[in-house]
Write a structure and sequence with these properties.
With 288 residues, the chain is an alpha/beta fold. The protein has helices spanning 16-28, 41-49, 60-64, 79-86, 104-113, 158-170, 180-207, 211-216, 220-226, 233-242, 244-266, 270-287; strands at 6-12, 31-37, 55-57, 69-72, 95-98, 121-122, 124-127, 147-150, 174-177. It has 12 helices and 9 strands. The strands form 2 sheets. Strands 3-2-1-4-5-6 form a 6-stranded parallel beta sheet. Bound molecules: nicotinamide-adenine-dinucleotide. Catalyzes the transfer of the enolpyruvyl moiety of phosphoenolpyruvate (PEP) to the 5-hydroxyl of shikimate-3-phosphate (S3P) to produce enolpyruvyl shikimate-3-phosphate and inorganic phosphate.
């Protein structure tokens, strides 16, 4: 095995996203030492028992001491407190990056709480995940052949961005750069809106009488469309609230499309119906 890419890597928030990076770094021999900081003692015990990290601390400042790179993977609403807790213990060269699903508010939290270390903060978002959460769901292969979006700002040191790019490339991911606002707008459309629709659809149907009865008659289409309604409510609560403006814009856009579709059905407008679905077929074919 070649020399590790990093000395100490600390993961704050050892859940699906943080635990999977720790596992991938461990498997690749990419970190000299792996340390976790997380809120719950049980998570840390599990992480140690699974062999994901060499040391684990509930005290987040203790966890980042001596780290060359810190990956923050807590829920988006916990980022500000986390940055405030680790800032005093960060080194002069420590690179800080994150995996939060919304970038604008996380960048603002970092700017407010990381102090001089903000220049070495590289905002990021792995476009990888699953419906399961928690350290038990950690998967060393999660990031392989998946995309990572980095959204550096004018304040971000390009050398820090290059190092974080190296990190993700080393675990098999493809790294893309985006502006933070563009990231939040695009993800609102391609990820946040579909989750909103899936949650709303399943909830709406399940309120209509006996839900087990409805779901008994559901087939593959329903399963495919609603898979993401099993996603973690706490995580998604944070995303909808933190990316509110972009989510509302996407929801309004969709509501207008739904109204057009509904009108076409109501009016028996075959041309409008076939036109809409044919355009959707063509667009979907380009995605596959
Ligand atoms: P998770 O629930 O599996 O893990 C979160 C971890 O953070 C847990 O170990 C929890 O104990 C810890 N934690 C929670 N609050 C904390 C606090 N205040 N201080 C310290 N630790 C705390 O969630 P996850 O799916 O790994 O998501 C983590 C981050 O990654 C979120 O910001 C989420 O938006 C982002 N993300 C998730 C996915 C996904 O599909 N799950 C994909 C991309 C990005």
């Amino acid at each position: 095995q070649s020399a590790p890419l990093f000395g100490q890597v600390t993961v704050i928030g050892l859940g699906l996203i943080g635990g999977s990076l720790a596992a991938a770094l461990r498997n690749g021999g990419l970190a000299g030492r792996l340390v976790a900081g997380s809120r719950s003692a049980r998570t840390l015990e599990r992480g140690l028992a699974m062999g994901l990290v060499d040391a684990a601390y509930q005290d987040l400042a203790e966890a980042v001491r001596g780290a060359d790179l810190v990956f923050v993977a807590v829920p988006v609403s916990a980022m500000a407190d986390t940055f405030a807790a680790i800032a005093p213990a960060l080194g002069r060269h420590t690179i800080i990056t994150d995996g939060g699903s919304v970038k604008g508010p996380v960048i603002e939290a970092a700017r407010q709480h990381l102090g001089v270390h903000y220049a070495r903060f590289v905002p990021g978002h792995p476009i990888a995940g699953k419906e399961r959460s928690g350290v038990e769901a950690a998967d060393a292969a999660l990031y392989q052949r998946h995309r990572i979006i980095l959204t550096p700002t004018e304040a971000t040191d390009p050398a820090a961005t290059a190092k974080v790019r190296q990190l993700w490339t080393a675990v098999g991911a493809e790294v893309l750069d985006m502006r933070p606002a563009e990231h939040d707008r695009v993800l609102a459309e391609t990820s946040h809106l579909p989750h909103l629709l899936a949650f709303a659809l399943v909830d709406t149907l399940s309120r209509q009488g006996d839900s087990t009865d409805i779901f008994r008659y559901a087939a593959g289409g329903f399963r495919d469309f609603t898979r993401i309604a099993s996603s973690d409510p706490v995580m998604w609560h944070d995303i909808f609230i933190e990316n509110r403006d972009a989510v509302l814009a996407a929801a309004d856009e969709f509501a207008a499309g739904l109204a057009r579709f509904r009108a076409a059905v109501a009016n028996g407008d075959s041309e409008a119906l076939l036109g809409t679905m044919t355009r959707a077929n063509t667009a979907r074919a380009r995605f596959l």
